[in-house]
């Protein structure tokens, strides 16, 4: 099948680079080298990283609080 797309992700356990099919994005995959299971994400897009999104959410909440506090006189 033409057009099969892979992205490269480092295994968080053994640090080896894995070619992961894009259809496995956001799903649990197993490292073929060490067998560790982890969630596939494309690090270059940074969109599927749960820690990233919660950090962004925290930052946005803090900005809102600061804005609300600063606007009061
Ligand atoms: Zn591994």
User: From the helix content, strand content and strand pairing, which structural class follows?
Assistant: alpha+beta
At the fold tier of CATH, the topology name is Rubrerythrin, domain 2
User: What is the helix fraction of residues, given as a range?
Assistant: 25-40%
Strand share of the residues? 15-25%
- The CATH class turns out to be Mainly Beta
Strand order of the largest sheet: 1-2
What are the secondary-structure elements, in order, as H or E?
EEEEH
Architecture overview:
- It is a single chain.
- The protein is of the alpha+beta class and 73 residues long.
- It has one domain (6-71): Rubrerythrin, domain 2 (Single Sheet).
- It has one helix spanning 50-71; strands at 6-10, 17-21, 28-30, 37-39.
- The protein starts with 5 loop residues before the first strand and ends with a helix.
- Residues 11, 13-14, 16, 31, 33-34, 36 line the site of zinc ion.
Q: How would you concisely characterize the structure shown here?
A:
The chain has 73 residues and is of the alpha+beta class. It has one helix at 50-71, and strands at 6-10, 17-21, 28-30, 37-39. The protein is elongated, with a radius of gyration of 18 Å.
For the structure shown, list the relevant keywords:
single chain, 73 residues, alpha+beta, Rubrerythrin, domain 2, two-stranded antiparallel ribbon, 30% helix, 22% strand, elongated, binds zinc ion
List the helices and strands and how they pair.
Elements lengths: L5 E5 L6 E5 L6 E3 L6 E3 L10 H22 L2
Antiparallel strand pairs: 1-2, 3-4
Zinc ion (ZN) binds next to loops.
């Amino acid at each position: 099948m033409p057009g099969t797309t892979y992205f490269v992700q480092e295994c968080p356990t053994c640090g080896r680079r894995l070619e992961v099919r894009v259809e496995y994005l956001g799903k649990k995959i197993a490292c073929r080298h060490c067998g560790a299971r982890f969630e596939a994400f494309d690090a270059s897009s940074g969109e599927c990283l749960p820690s990233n999104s919660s950090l962004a959410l925290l930052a946005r909440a803090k900005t809102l609080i600061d804005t609300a506090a600063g606007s009061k006189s």
